[in-house]
Task: structure prediction
Amino acid sequence: MDARSWAERRLKEKGLRVTQPRVAVLACLASSARHPTAEEVGTAVHRLLPTAARASIYNVLHSLKDAGLVSELVFDDALARYDANVDRHHHFVCAGCGTVEDVPWDALPPLPKRRLPDGQSVQSYAITLRGFCSRCVPGA
Ligand SMILES: [Zn+2]
Result:
């Protein structure tokens, strides 16, 4: 299934009206593994839909986030990044190039304890791993 058809299906599943900007933003996120910033999404969508204003693209991002279709992530550079993969997974941030990659949930062993020493009950978690990606690893 191509990214646009996937995006249309996801919008319908959530009961959102299928509009060109929504499909373009969601399809752009679905076809990128790079966790783009709002500005990067704006640039990519603007190329496809030159009439779409930046502000409306940002509004679409926020409505998709509110609908649970994308998640917003903030890492070390403090920029909001967007991810159309809302299934549970971890992230890897490269200290060299700043790339943010998905790490499959099963790649790490599960947390051994669901109740913390101070009594908090853990309902969910995601881990941010930091290091060097395969292109930046020193000595490679
Ligand atoms: Zn991700």
